Here is the input.
Amino acid sequence: MKRIVIKVQSKALGDIIGAMAVIDAFRKKESVEVSVCLNLDGSFFKRSYPEIEVIPYDNEPAFYPDQSEWILDGKVYNEFRRIFYKFDKPLMQGYADQLGVTEWERPKIDTSDSERPVKSRYACFSMHSTAQCKHWNYPDGWDKLCRILRKSGVTPVCIDRHEKFGAPGEWNESPRAAVKKHGMDLAGIIEYISHCDFFIGLSSGLSWVAHAMGKPVVMISGVTSLENEFSEDTIRISNPGVCNGCINKIEHTFDSGDWFWCPIHKGTERQFECTKTITPEQVFEKIKQII
Here is the structure.
């Protein structure tokens, strides 16, 4: 059987999860043996993708031109490919185009068999991401939403790694009204998501984790296009009446080094209006479909 190594060049958690589903579809379509270089421990996919060997990100096969073969740790491969995140395509579609795949299944990641960590009904949420444009920028939006959730009988649990995250001038602090479970590694985060009723998040890695675990996801996002992430069991909250979707438009180049990147309205009152105009009440109205 033909052996192929595929390296997911992006180190982002959501990119990795989405890519794994596409790679598995490629493996089945081509009837090949696949190893994949990832910036994530392979133990998180051991049950979900048992046929795919996960190799640490920094390990790559060496090419031997005389034999037209790639070799890594004594294992011979017929081909080595790199796949990249494509800003102008929905996340999984971008990877699928590079691998010649047209159909794929919902992403998967191994769930936790641990005991329920919260006795009452609860929802996990993640309010942090890698740029301010990806955050929910309504003033005190998360704290107001958490208070509304508590009144409805749902305990909000913040599972972000950091209690405060951002840059000078814009520190995003976890809500006072939430149960704070900061500092956990990914295994701990998965334990909490495994038992929650639903997940609330952004266009970020933990939304992909919850989706891959089969959880309903409420996603607040304006900077990405409506098609960028996923749609199954998902309530997506955006405001199409204002500037939106800029990160996926070819006329804009996302600058990951600029925390305040907003290509059209940076420095004006309209900066981050894509999510600044989404109110906690609007978010809860959508959440009521679940609770």
Remarks:
- The two ends are 49 Å apart (CA to CA).
- The chain has two domains: 3-99, 122-287.
- The chain has a mean pLDDT of 96.
- The helical segments are 13-30, 91-99, 141-151, 186-195, 205-212, 273-276, 280-287.
